[in-house]
Design a protein that fits this description.
Elements: E1 18-20, E2 23-28, E3 31-35, E4 47-48, E5 60-66, E6 69-74, E7 78-84, E8 89-96, E9 101-108, E10 111-116, E11 120-124, E12 131-136, E13 146-148, E14 151-156, E15 160-167, E16 170-178
Antiparallel strand pairs: 1-2, 2-3, 3-4, 5-6, 6-7, 7-8, 9-10, 10-11, 11-12, 13-14, 14-15, 15-16
Length: 180
């Protein structure tokens, strides 16, 4: 019988991992680490989070995949697009958002949608990660964003579920339901 390989992850998993065709990316303290699905071994060099001197290292909050690249956010409002290179995970674009992402992010029509701590929905450019459109919600977002077939679904306070379509560079609310 073949012995099963067993070891320990080098740190706490800080957010939900994401799956790429080459493996799974784990958000560990200060780094994103790619592990092979077949062997469980690290595949390439890590992406290391940039830390400002004398600041506490922020935690990763959300990860998603867009066009084969990983988008990751942290608790201080940082957002980074990481690409898989031959030998390592490398930063393609990084920037600081005005406010931290609070309820995840989703991909809709090959664009990234986030919600921030002010209750705004933002449609981000997939290349620069800058907001191209925003929409202020009337209530706080209470669950992760999700999308399907060109529609965005947002659960807000007072048990409301709202459906949006993005048309002409604007979020257009299609319907709203009260949840029981």
């Amino acid at each position: 019988a073949k012995e099963v390989q067993s070891d320990t992850l080098p740190g706490e998993i800080q957010a939900d991992p994401v799956l790429l065709k080459n493996g799974v990316i784990f958000p560990l303290p200060g780094r994103l680490k790619l592990f092979s699905l077949k062997t469980g071994a690290p595949s390439v060099g890590d992406y290391e989070m940039e830390v400002i001197q004398d600041e506490k290292q922020p935690r990763w909050t959300y990860l998603t995949v867009l066009n084969g690249q990983v988008i990751a956010t942290d608790e201080r409002g940082g957002i980074v697009r990481v690409q898989l290179g031959q030998a390592s995970l490398g930063k393609a674009v990084a920037r600081k958002l005005d406010r931290p992402v609070t309820q995840g992010m989703t991909v809709l029509d090959q664009k990234l949608i986030i919600t921030d701590s002010s209750g705004q929905l933002h449609w981000l450019s997939s290349s620069s990660l800058t907001p191209t459109a925003s929409h202020l919600l009337p209530e706080k977002v209470t669950n992760n964003l999700w999308s399907h077939n060109g529609y965005l679904y947002v659960e807000t306070a007072y048990q409301r579920l709202r459906c949006f379509k993005f048309e002409n560079n604007k979020f257009k609310q299609v319907w709203e339901k009260t949840l029981l």
